[in-house]
Write a structure and sequence with these properties.
The protein has about 120 residues and is an alpha+beta fold. The longest helix is centred in the N-terminal third of the chain and has 17 residues. About 15% of the residues lie in helices and about 40% in strands. The chain starts with a helix and ends with a strand. Strands 1, 2, 3, 4, 5, 6 and 7 form a 7-stranded mixed sheet that branches. The chain has one domain: Beta Barrel (OB fold (Dihydrolipoamide Acetyltransferase, E2P)), CATH 2.40.50.
Length: about 120
């Protein structure tokens, strides 16, 4: 019983530690994005850290929606190009490459965004 309470308390504390505030794209370039694709009112988007305080919504140009369509409501990994800096949780990027991934049920925080290579901003 004591270990169950300890595990529950640890999970509650650790989930709040992982929820970081997103400050936007500070460096332009290619990013690796582990996320899910969703259909919204305005088209298709990529959502990183869905349903958390650090949720990031990446909108893609209409031309890229054809690449994203097979991955709607599925976990995926994409290489996304961000050509301009942005602030806030809503950013726009262009898909360079995309593939499906198997989410880790033990680690719900397996989504994220990571800079792969820097480039000049437009």
């Amino acid at each position: 019983m004591r270990s169950l309470i300890s595990i529950t308390f640890t999970l509650l504390i650790s989930s709040s530690l992982f929820a970081q505030d997103w400050t936007g794209i500070s460096d332009c370039g290619v990013y690796q994005v582990n996320a899910v694709a969703r259909s919204v009112k305005n088209g298709l988007v990529i959502i990183v850290n869905e349903k958390t305080k650090s949720e990031i919504t990446i909108s893609v140009p209409v031309q890229n929606e054809a690449y994203l369509a097979p991955y709607v409501d599925r976990a995926m990994t994409a290489s996304v190009i961000f050509a301009k800096k942005s602030q806030g949780a809503k950013v726009e990027g262009t898909i360079k490459e995309i593939k499906s991934r198997i989410p880790n049920p033990i680690n719900p925080m397996d989504t994220g965004i990571k800079l792969i290579s820097k480039a000049e901003c437009k």
